[in-house]
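Students often ask why inverse folding is considered easier than folding. One informal answer: many sequences map to the same fold, so there is more than one right answer. In these notes we will look at a single instance of the problem. The structure comes first.
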């Protein structure tokens, strides 16, 4: 039985176990991703494997004890506290450092050439304390593997590992405080649904006791486990849930993006908890935007040159403007709540409004903001305008990404990343070569959803906190977890690279991505540009479009198209990623939920929640087995399961 006296000791044990899980994830992630070719255990969708599995284990223990008439072993607050520690500790390190940061810290010494001009324009301005070993055989050995006569240069990695671990702490504190500033408005006033958090809350409060939940788990597990079996007994065919076409999708109109017609059960479960208007809007806007882009291509509209750090186009710039407009409207709508929050921080009241108290949240926000400015200055970016645009757009991107995640369960990022926005607004003429080199290094924490997802994790913490207060010290433990994971992840990645050679990893980041930021920074030194007014114009068009959609949504009765659906439909329509992979599952989810509400009402919707929660959480049951089998196979055979 739980007692007040045993609570501190129990939390100490749980916190220690959580940190051990984070350490295990950080050490194993490089090998699991690059050798065993398994999923990244620390960062996988909105419900990462390691954090969710540990959380479900605690929920399962509580469910078993309740069935025997015993009190729960852990409280809701302790369960969610462990989840958040593992979630935030594993996420940033395994994504930003294993796959993005490490190649950026090592590539300049290996891929510099007379053609790209790195030796003259980039390398002299890179801070040695932040970079990997520069001399051979260490630099080339990272990509080609060290010969048997050379030891891994652990001492050379100590300083950059400590430096980036400290940065990750400041960065995480900034995101947690930013989420705290917005939490009260989104949770209490806007009442956002937080679909993935609702699944977690349901699991903690009773899903596991429902047969419908286990039916959902079984259905989700069926196809992946059969295909795992098929790899050992290949006489049987693989199973799939394609209802037409294949991985390349179905052509629904010549010249437009194909639509994948496979039913994603994990996504189907999540979309059940998403507002129907968002789901159907995503489908409708996908069709409209596909035709818009098709028309622009036929008309031959092209920008004069590519973006500095990414291959942006007019559609991406419009989407960036729409994204920005949605964020600014959200801030405007919550201005009274934010003002009240700042007043509470000044007066020392409102302790229950967010994870940290308002006063602590504001203090952390100011301190971490100053820390980021200092960090960028140490890297070489000291221009006030560049700092303002980079950090301002980063903060807006964090808010927007978290907002869309809270409403739709989808992870999204800026279509034109923050480094590009900085260059578009400020131009490159104003930046010294050291500043351009710093922007190249900053690409690791603005790239894709790797960084943007972390503030969504912080907002998930705010939402789950409403179900049970976190134990004391959770915030500090999160910072310890991200520092520990960053440090261990960098060393684990270095060990694997020196042993096997990063060229054998077979991923885009270690083959091409690590060259792009430095190539474009070097080109900017050679050919400086001013403010790009044409791109800013297209960005303004996107802002105006989103403004119209928001006005129609809020003022026209019966208007069902949701602005968030526009963002989701426009994100990543290229083959291999994006909305064309979600449309079919979205249609199925919308039809099922609509029929259920029309025929059975809200009672039927509530009744079927455990089933769809099982579709989501069943992924972790089969994932545990698949990951274990892949790991054992790679250890015994030395190659990934299924590799020739």
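Output (designed amino acids):
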């Amino acid at each position: 039985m739980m007692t007040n006296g045993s609570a501190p000791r129990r939390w100490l044990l749980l916190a220690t176990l959580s940190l051990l899980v984070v350490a295990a994830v950080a050490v194993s992630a490089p090998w699991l991703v690059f050798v065993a070719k398994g999923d990244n255990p620390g960062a996988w969708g909105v419900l990462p494997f390691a954090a969710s599995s540990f959380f479900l284990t605690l929920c399962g223990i509580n469910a078993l004890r309740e069935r025997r008439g015993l009190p729960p072993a852990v409280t809701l607050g302790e369960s969610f506290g462990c989840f958040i520690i593992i979630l935030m500790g594993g996420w940033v390190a395994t994504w930003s450092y294993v796959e993005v940061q490490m190649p950026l810290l090592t590539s300049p010494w290996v891929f510099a050439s007379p053609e790209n001009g790195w030796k003259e324009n980039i390398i002299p301005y890179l801070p040695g304390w932040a970079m990997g070993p520069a001399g051979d055989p260490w630099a080339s050995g990272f990509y080609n593997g060290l010969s048997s006569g050379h030891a891994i240069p652990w001492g050379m990695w100590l300083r950059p590992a400590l430096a980036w671990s400290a940065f990750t702490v400041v960065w995480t504190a900034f995101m947690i405080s930013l989420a705290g500033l917005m939490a009260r408005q989104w949770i209490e006033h806007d009442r956002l649904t937080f679909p993935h958090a609702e699944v977690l809350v349901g699991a903690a409060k009773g899903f596991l006791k429902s047969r419908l939940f286990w039916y959902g788990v079984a259905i989700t597990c069926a196809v992946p486990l059969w295909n795992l079996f098929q790899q050992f007994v290949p006489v049987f065919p693989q199973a799939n849930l394609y209802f037409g076409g294949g991985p390349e999708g179905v052509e629904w109109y010549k010249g437009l993006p194909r639509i994948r017609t496979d039913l994603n059960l994990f996504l189907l479960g999540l979309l059940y908890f998403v507002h129907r208007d968002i789901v159907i809007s995503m489908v409708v806007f996908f069709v409209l935007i596909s035709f818009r882009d098709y028309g622009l291509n036929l008309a031959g509209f092209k920008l004069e040159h590519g973006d500095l750090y990414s291959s942006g186009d007019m559609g991406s710039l419009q989407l960036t403007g729409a994204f920005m407009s949605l964020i600014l409207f959200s801030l405007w709508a919550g201005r009274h709540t934010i003002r009240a929050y700042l007043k509470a921080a000044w007066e020392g009241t409102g302790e229950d409004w967010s994870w940290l108290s308002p006063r602590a949240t504001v203090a952390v926000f100011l301190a971490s903001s100053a820390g980021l400015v200092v960090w960028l200055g140490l890297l070489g970016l000291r221009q006030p305008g560049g700092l303002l645009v980079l950090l301002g757009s980063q903060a807006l991107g964090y808010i927007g990404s978290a907002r869309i995640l809270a409403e739709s369960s989808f992870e999204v990022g800026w279509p034109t990343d923050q480094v590009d926005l900085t260059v578009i607004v400020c131009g490159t003429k104003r930046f010294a070569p050291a500043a351009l080199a710093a922007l190249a290094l900053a690409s690791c924490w603005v790239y894709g959803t790797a960084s943007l997802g972390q503030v969504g994790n912080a907002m998930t913490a705010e939402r789950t906190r409403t179900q049970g207060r976190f134990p004391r010290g959770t915030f500090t433990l999160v910072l310890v977890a991200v520092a520990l994971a960053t440090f261990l992840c960098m060393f684990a990645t270095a060990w694997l690279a020196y042993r096997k050679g990063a060229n054998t990893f077979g991923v885009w980041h270690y083959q091409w991505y690590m060259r792009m930021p430095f190539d474009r920074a070097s080109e900017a030194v050679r050919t400086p540009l001013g403010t790009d007014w044409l791109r800013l114009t297209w960005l303004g068009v996107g802002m105006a479009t989103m403004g119209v959609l928001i006005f129609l949504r809020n003022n026209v009765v019966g208007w069902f198209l949701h602005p968030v659906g526009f963002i989701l439909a426009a994100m990543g329509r290229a083959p291999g990623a994006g909305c064309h992979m979600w449309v079919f599952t979205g249609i199925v989810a919308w039809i099922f939920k609509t029929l259920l509400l029309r025929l059975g009402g809200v009672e039927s919707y509530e009744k079927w929640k455990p089933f769809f929660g099982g579709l989501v959480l069943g992924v972790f049951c089969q994932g545990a087995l698949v990951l274990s089998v892949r790991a054992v196979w790679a250890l015994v055979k030395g190659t990934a399961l299924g590799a020739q």
